[in-house]
Write a structure and sequence with these properties.
This protein is mainly beta and about 450 residues long. It is built from 2 helices and 19 strands. The chain starts with a helix and ends in a 16-residue tail after the last strand.
């Protein structure tokens, strides 16, 4: 038990330090659009199922994708979940009949979540997680008269959210039937930097640069419902489980401020930048950003034995209306790329080969839960009237910490996917994503938290 505690503590410090002090948030050229790459509000275990999550309710997992599931947390058994992820990407583009390639790697803190059971029917969750990330550096060269012109687009930054949510069982008939409602309130904040430059290699004309720094903050809300039903099978201790979940993230306007600077310049000995004329300059310009609404619905069918899940399989459909996204400053809408409605279909499941945790002849991997998933959808990015697609395959494992007889688990997931295409001079991104998370909870029998002790 002490050894596991030392291992977990060491890993938490190592990975948290790695993320905060050496992280590169993103490298995808497609983060130019909107608020960048949107990060799903899911923990590592559900990433292993491709993001299939809104219909799942687990008392030993915090499911932030559906606040209605917070009521499942067992009294005196809170759960803390910490997750990080890394992505290795290969980019490919075709230009003048030639294939150009590049690579990029990034690391990201995926979530820090604490789930607290309040009563038998109610649970509360507090957390910090990213909403979106931006990180790109794109250059292209064009021959103009006798000079070569370089167009450069560079951006970085992130948008984060502090989440506070609650879930409540409207109907609770023990472990057989539950109907729950939930609500998340999020404070969204962050800073995004975008710089565009036009550089003349021979100095034929003045170079130009546009610097755009945007800081945003505000509140957003999402609600969820969840239904859980158990039906006894023919065999003893054989139970079929049906679950249905749906969530709605509401469209919201959040406040924003912008510093905008457009100017011309020359290089001194091709090194030092010397400004010449200021074309536009706005400082601390006020405005607002319209975030899209998002709807998800999913269901799954599973089989339980000895009050443990043997296997389950399900499907989920997501839709986000990014076509309503707007950036408005001083009542004037900024020029943005046309974004489209995003849709996604997910199919996934999980299986636990061995349920007898007391069998010492079985190792940890035999008692682990294995998950899989496949997703396919249209992204919100639309270039040259072509909406980009995104698809991927996911695999995961959830390893119990058996030595402490607790609900604690180490969760690992991988995703192999592809975004975009090389057709019509676009960029294709092939990526491998690895996530690791720690779901930590007290001992279910001997170390229950917030329990009032009685002495004779």
């Amino acid at each position: 038990m002490k050894m596991w505690h030392k291992i977990i503590t060491t890993l938490l410090f190592v990975f948290t330090g790695l993320v905060f002090f050496s992280q590169n948030l993103n490298t995808s050229p497609y983060t130019r659009f909107g608020l960048g790459e949107i990060n799903k509000p899911i923990t590592t275990h559900y990433q292993g199922m491709g993001g299939l999550s809104v219909s799942y309710s687990d008392f030993h997992m915090v499911n932030i994708s559906n606040p209605a599931t917070y009521s499942t947390l067992r009294k005196n058994n809170p759960v803390f979940d910490l997750g990080i992820s890394g992505k290795m990407s290969n980019y490919k583009a075709e230009s003048n009949g030639e294939i150009n390639t590049s690579q990029g790697n990034n690391f990201l803190l995926n979530n820090m979540i604490l789930g607290l059971p309040v009563t038998k029917r109610c649970g509360v969750t507090l957390g910090l997680l990213p909403y979106s990330t931006v990180g790109y550096d794109i250059s292209s060269n064009t021959l103009l008269s006798s000079d070569t012109v370089t167009y450069n687009y560079r951006g970085d930054g992130s948008v984060n959210r502090i989440l506070l949510g609650t879930g409540y069982d409207v109907i609770n008939k023990g472990d057989t039937t539950r109907f729950s409602l939930g609500l998340n309130a999020s404070y969204v904040f962050g800073t995004l930097n975008r710089n565009n430059s036009v550089i003349f290699q021979e100095g034929t004309f003045y170079n130009t640069r546009v610097q755009n720094k945007m800081t945003l903050s505000g509140f957003s809300f999402d609600a969820g419902i969840h239904f859980y039903q158990e039906v006894k099978g023919k065999a003893e201790n054989d139970i079929w489980v049906y679950q249905l979940g749906a969530t709605q993230a509401f469209s919201s306007q959040i406040g924003a401020r912008r510093d905008f600077y457009a100017y011309s310049f020359i290089y001194n000995f091709s090194v030092q930048e010397i400004p010449k004329d200021t074309t536009y300059f706005y400082e601390d310009q006020t405005g607002n950003i319209t975030l899209p609404d998002h709807f998800s619905i999913g269901m799954n069918l599973g089989r339980n034995k000895q009050n443990k899940n043997v296997w389950s399989i399900g499907a989920q459909f997501n839709i986000s209306n990014w076509d309503i996204y707007k950036e408005v400053f001083d009542n004037i809408a900024s020029e943005n790329q046309d974004l489209s409605q995003m849709t996604e279909l997910i199919i996934g499941g999980r299986i636990t080969p061995t349920l007898d945790f007391d069998d010492k002849n079985k190792n940890s991997f035999q008692k682990s839960t294995y998950s899989f998933g496949f997703k396919y959808g249209n992204s919100f990015i639309n270039i040259n009237d072509q909406q980009l697609t995104n698809y991927g395959m996911n695999f995961g494992i959830s390893i119990p910490l058996l030595s402490s007889r607790s609900l604690s688990r180490v969760n690992i997931s991988t995703e192999l996917g592809r975004m975009g295409t090389i057709e019509n001079e676009l960029i294709e991104e092939s990526y491998l994503k690895l996530s690791i998370g720690f779901s930590l909870a007290p001992d279910t029998r001997y170390d229950r938290w917030f329990k009032k002790r009685k002495y004779d």
